[in-house]
Amino acid sequence: MERKAAQPTLMDGYVADLGDPKMAAKLDQLDQMIPWQKLASPIRATYDNDSEQGGRPNVAVVVMLKIVMLQKWFSLSDEAMEGMLLDRISFRRFVGLSMHEGTVDSTTLVKFRNRLREHCLMDVFFDQVVTHLRDKGLIVQEGTLVDATIIEAPRGRTTEDGLGHTKDKSASYTKKNDKSYHGYKAHIATDAKGMITDYIYDTAKVHDSIHIDALIENEKDAVFADSAYMNKKRKARLQKDGIFCGIIERRVRGQTELTAEQKTHNRLCASFRAYVEHPFAWIKNTGELRRARYRGLTRNAIDFALNAIAYNFRRSLSLTT
After folding, report:
1. Alpha-carbon distances of 272 from 193, 211, 224, 277, 315, rounded to whole Å
2. Is 172 helix (H, G, I), strand (E, B) or coil?
3. pLDDT digits (tens, 9 = 90+) for 225-246
């Protein structure tokens, strides 16, 4: 059973006009465009405590979802989010907490993410968001753009007793431009506007091209990607199915330089393909996901997916205003 929202008090009336009006307006737009109750439904179904038999009511799932989105939109740790809910009126108003209610603490946020992981709800959550945005016409069916980015993880250190190491064993090493990286790799598919339509989160050593076929499985029109994804079989298969192959051409063995046709193809595809860079720019800069936050593939995959969802909602706002 969920806690019921508290009725507004006299204090809520006093502070109704306080806070940054621009921030309040932006949060209000996001609040109205996101189908919170629909997204909360499969998560709510995993709770089985009954407060009538003595169990404590849960924090409403919608409240938790709103808090998680605030974390990603403003790059806040669990502890920082708890502090902001104590301090910031616009945040309390957005998540639905009255001025006299207790604040959701960082431990509750950890438990909520654990629930998503334990009940394998992240894919359901992400797919619900994509379906909603597609139904609203905010995701277009005009081709799929594919790319991947490295999310570094700490390399760890030897423990004081010399018998162990703190390195995340789920992470792995890879090289890019002759530089070594340790961590994970996020693979994404976007539409022509840069909205993330699918993702695969894997260890860093897995080559970019391994996951592209799964990411473009339902594409019928066009595929755009950089030269790391090019191979003859994939190109032939796309062309056979009537799908435009917008993968950047590269020189093959014995070829000293690209042909004029290949250069023209690459130039045209590169400008279109640039939209797939937008999500990574936001997630790594605004969302500050330059490094893995947790240990283990699954926990970091959930964190990336939440960032992807947050990005999609923010991107949607810019497309509708």
Report:
1. 10, 21, 8, 11, 17
2. strand
3. 999 999 999 999 999 999 999 9
How many other CB atoms are there within 10 angstroms of residue 225's CB atom? 26
Return the closest-CA partner of residue 308 out of 284, 292, 291. Answer: 284
Give 291's DSSP letter.
B
Are the C-beta atoms of 29 and 317 separated by less than 8 Å? yes
pTM over cut 0.85: yes
**C-beta separation of 181 from 155 below 8 A:** no
* % of residues, the chain, pLDDT over 90: 68
The predicted pLDDT at position 2 comes to: 59
Backbone angles phi, psi at 147, to 5 degrees: -160, 170
Count of all residues that appear for the chain in the document: 321
Among residues 60, 72, 50, 74, which one has the least CA distance to residue 104?
60
Beta bridge partners of 182: 173
Q: How far is CA 221 from CA 26, 33, 216, 275, in A?
A: 35, 29, 10, 17
- State in Å, rounded, how far the first CA of the chain is from the last one: 37
pLDDT in tens, 139-188: 988 899 999 999 999 887 766 666 667 788 899 999 998 899 999 999 99
Kindly tell me the sign of the dihedral angle through the C-alpha atoms of 36, 38, 42, 45: positive
- Residue 16 pLDDT: 45
> Helices 297-320 and 61-74 sit at what angle, rounded to 10 degrees?
80
Name the token pair of 318: 């810019």
Q: Which residue has the tokens 């996901």?
A: 289
Q: Which residue has 């000293």 as its token pair?
A: 256
